[in-house]
Amino acid sequence: MNTSLPVRTGLVIAAVLSLGDVATPLLSDGEHPPMAVALVAAALGLATLAALVPAWRGKPAALWAVIVTRLASILGAVPAFFVDAVPAGATIAAAVALAATVLSVGLASTGLRAQRPRTA
Fold first, then answer.
1. C-beta of residue 41 within 8 angstroms of C-beta of residue 72
2. Are the beta carbons of 69 and 48 closer than 8 angstroms?
3. Complete DSSP assignment for 32-78
4. pTM, 2 dp
5. d(Cα 65, Cα 56) in Å, to the nearest integer?
6. When you count CB atoms within 10 A of the terminal residue's CB, does the N or C end of the chain come out lower?
7. Contact, 23 vs 43, CB < 8 A?
8. Which of the two residues, 113 and 56, has the higher pLDDT score?
9. What does the alpha-carbon distance between residue 112 and residue 105 come to, in Å, rounded to a whole number?
């Protein structure tokens, strides 16, 4: 697997997002986001953090785990764009997290491209 600068940059962004997810239950008022959503986000954040070191070392399965957990995590933020009672700050935070997730996954996924065999 290719652990180039873009892949590592994507993994660093994923790490920052994961740390935010882990802190979500502590920052939630129980309604925004609901505590159940906050706990799922924290679990996904922990799963991402667990996969980061092996992904950094070039393990494709771990890179897949990072990508899938980040995409699953951002699904919890989608209602912020459609529910009227969500505070503006939470909607802005969801938009920033969505953009950062797209960037992270896009960069990290470049490591999944098949490498061509080297010729002499």
1. no
2. yes
3. TTBHHHHHHHHHHHHHHHHHHHHHHTT-HHHHHHHHHHHHHHHHTTG
4. 0.88
5. 12
6. C
7. no
8. 56
9. 11
Q: Please, are residues 73 and 45 in contact by the beta-carbon 8 Å criterion?
A: yes
pLDDT, one tens digit per residue, over 13-69 is 999 999 999 999 998 887 778 899 899 999 999 999 999 999 999 899 999 999 999
pLDDT at 118: 62
Domain count, the chain: 1
Return all residues near 60 (Cβ < 8 A) that are at least 6 apart.
1, 111, 112
Look at residue 2 in the predicted model and tell me its pLDDT.
61
Phi, psi of 34 (to 5 degrees): -60, 150
Q: In this structure, are residues 64 and 71 in contact, taking their beta carbons and an 8 Å threshold?
A: no
Q: Does some domain include residue 120?
A: no
- Is residue 85, in this structure, part of any structural domain at all? yes
| Domain limits for position 45 | 5-112
Task: Give pLDDT, residue 114.
Answer: 59
Residue 119, domain member (yes or no) = no
CA–CA dist 100, 44 (Å, integer): 16
Tokens encoding 26: 């502590």
